Input
Amino acid sequence: MTFPVHRPRRLRRTERLRGLVRETRLSASGLVYPMFACPGNKVRTEVSSMPGVFQQSPDQIVEECREVAGLGIPAVILFGLPEKKDETGSEAASPTGAVQRSIEAIRKAKLDLVVITDVCLCEYTSHGHCGVIKDDEVQNDPSIALLADAALSHARAGADIVAPSDMMDGRVAAIRRKLDENKFSDVAILSYAAKYCSAFYGPFREAAQSTPQFGDRRSYQMDPANAREALREVELDLEEGADIIMVKPALPYLDIIVRVRERFDVPVAAYNVSAEYSMVKAAARNGWIDEQRIVLEIMTSIQRAGASTILTYHAKDVARWLGKC
Output
């Protein structure tokens, strides 16, 4: 019998050998932990569809941020819930909003964290859409002016990076202009450049209380059937001044992450979104899967596809598990 000269199994015999030649090396240094800031004090309310994820007042946000920093996770992204909602989402730009107060509290605590803020109106509007409504349609240009004001308020509070997630055309340029005019040229923009209109956002809408009160977001978020369009969206956002671009969701769009990584030589982020998280949690609670192995495999797949930064609600668990490896 003739045996093969090339035997790939030689390098799979032990964990030491496998680790020595491993192509993708997952670490906590590329993780971002999403958090939901709400008004008040001593508020910590678990999101029923997202076990282990909470709506928290700024004082509680700071305490969890201490834990996050202690685990070696370098960054958090803050989403906000308002005291009250209105047609234009005016509280998004309020200097006393939950996000702004949380940023200030993190800075006062001198935590070694990169603070990213989500810039959108859906959590703040009474109708739940990501922009101004006229005749039941989301208006693009009036909306980007409000988004730029919200981004500026985050920068003034001390954010390192602002992350517009609304998918309005031209919002990156408007935000970049507003920041630069107000001497915040060092504040970076992480653009949700390829954000798809996805069913995987369901649990997030409970967490952020952002479910649209009518219609859906298909007129501004991307059609899940389109891939080439994502490259155009990324290109436009980079031309407008984005520093980092994001693909969202992650798992159903790994092919998009690959295409973006191959086409553009910029930092690429991916958002492992709420339903991706909740499905794993539900299956684990039923004893159907090995949660640790599943989550680490998911994270590895997202990084292998080309994302250098992963936003994930699993971040704290991943950091703990990697610390034991």
Observations:
- Residues 27-324 form a domain with the TIM Barrel fold (CATH 3.20.20.70).
- DSSP finds eleven helices and twelve strands in the chain.
- The chain has one domain: 27-324.
- The first strand starts at residue 31 and ends at 37.
